[in-house]
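pls ignore typos typing on phone
WTA + seq
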Amino acid sequence: MTPEEIPLKSDATVSALLEENRIFHPPYDFKAKAFIKDASIYERARQDPQGFWAEWAGKLEWFKKWDKVLEWDVPYSKWFIGGKLNASYNCLDRHIKAGLGGKKAIIWEGEPEGEQKVLTYNEMYLAVNKLANVIKSLGVVKGDRVAIYMPMIPEAVVAMQACARVGAIHTVVFGGFSAEALKDRILDAQAKLLITADGGYRRGKLIPLKDISDEVVSQCPCVVHVLVVNRAGHPVNMQSGRDYWYHDLMEKAKVYCPPEPMDAEDILYILYTSGTTGKPKGIIHTTGGYMTGVAATTQWVFDLRADDIFWCTADIGWVTGHSYIVYGPMANGATQIMYEGSPDYPQRDRFWRIIERHRATILYTAPTAIRSFMKWGTQWPEQCDLSSLRLLGSVGEPINPEAWIWYYHYIGKEKCPIVDTWWQTETGCILISPLPGLTPLKPGSATRALPGIEAAVLSEDGKNIERGGGYLAITTPWPAMLRGIYGDADRYKETYWTKWKGTYFPGDGAKKDADGYLWLLGRVDDVIKVSGHRIGTMEVESALVDHPQVAEAAVVGISDEIKGQEIAAFVILKEGNPPGPEAEDMLKKHVVHKIGAIGRPKTIIFTAELPKTRSGKIMRRLLRDIAEGRALGDVTTLADAHVVETLKQKYESEGQT
Ligand code: WTA
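k done
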């Protein structure tokens, strides 16, 4: 803490702070020991971006060095061309060779209290090697796709690393997704093997992943085998010749599997994420550039040191779990905490107990979680010893200054910098974030682009906005950038590269202030963020119209104090189907069945018509205004303004404003 800062001690000072727009400088001690404390890194990277990234790539171990750093044939980039490496080798073998095999890799807690497991790098190495041999014995070869549908257990990390070891492409499907969502992803990726578990725990309940998988696999002819981890002792159906127990095959597996030398541009994984159509996009990440990006940014942004206990609370089903549990921290030989369940199980202090128990030094979580903690009250963290923490992180959605200050004050005890990290499934690694030993912080701003990354705020027609609001743009290629959308080259070009020539359009609104700081303002397309989880409004619409009683549906994101955004759906039922609470319940269940609980609309508003422009486009802004109970926007372009009036009155009469 710098001398000019007055320590915060009470809620009164918290609210004073909110009004002051104060800048938080890196604490003196933090800065003194920080990995990056010299701002010249930005300039160095700007002068020679390729040389800069090559230097960071060189910190990984390559079987063969690259011949050329970058080929940029808009919108396709290739990085470290001709280089050969293996991601699992870089996350495991390298540390063991350096004598770090005995170091803890994962400290795991299951949701049921008292359930704990520690895996050292040696143990992870053994498990990954054995599983690599197992999946090979099941017929998986380099380039094959493997779907992973698992709870947050160490075996999930082992499964991803084992795929990387043999050169198989993993596609992890979040364990909260429904059977239908799992099926779509398996079919799109044409996965040959599915790795799952009998179940996993979430808020005291068992999620029966194998039962869900059974519904799906029979409809996916591409899947030859299913490998099942016995996590919960939940009885499952095992189809002979197709399904195998993980522990049975692991017991017999050979202990070493040579890492497959992968081309830098060979695919490491595909991860599906929501876009503006009903169909999720399979985002492609390759090996060399991605590993360079995640390894470097883990080091810079989290200021990672050998003795840190790093805890990223994301699920491995999302990109944050891929980049900042499985690949970035492990490439750096970090000790990590991994937790299976919910933050309020069995009580609302679970996160703080975990931090206290394992002496976590870095916590990386989402604003939605922070807002829940705020709501639950300070008594929960106050009862725990959080003194081990030295750095806090935030990801997934804009963090509101109130939540930032609360996090800083009650969790970081005013001594931990907060890194507000902006990035996406597509970007692979963090692109905009403070460097904690260097960057003065403003609550609510992700500050500036990292070294080697060029971000700008542009107008619709591509003009640079030096001060003010517009669209976020990334103007130069970076190593961990997506290489495309699996099986859909046109969509790749259209989604990200048609707005401006040669410049990446992330789909976010942003503002630049007088100091050049970036303030991310959320999505400008039909993608919304519910509790930090990305979901396309069209996906929910497709799920709704899939119901036989639904004629038409329009879905919008509405603001929510805790979740950031919530889903509101406007539905036209086919004639003869009565609207009402029963229909609402039925449709919510239908969406959960099609997508999973994260797609469940908070509100369904039945209507006779949807407000459309003269050209037939649904007026989503107007729907949002209606759903949020605000005054109506400009209705002059409506085909029938009366419709909106009816809708509004109906909404208000139902008391949902
Ligand atoms: C949003 C998550 C503001 C943004 C890593 C982006 C953020 C989308 C931030 C990607 C942040 C992520 N501040 N907004 N620090 N981080 N976002 O693919 O809208 O699940 O486009 O990746 O999350 O979501 P995704």
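Residues 1-9, 633-639 have pLDDT under 50 and may be disordered. The domain at 527-653 is CATH 3.30.300.30 (GMP Synthetase; Chain A, domain 3). more later
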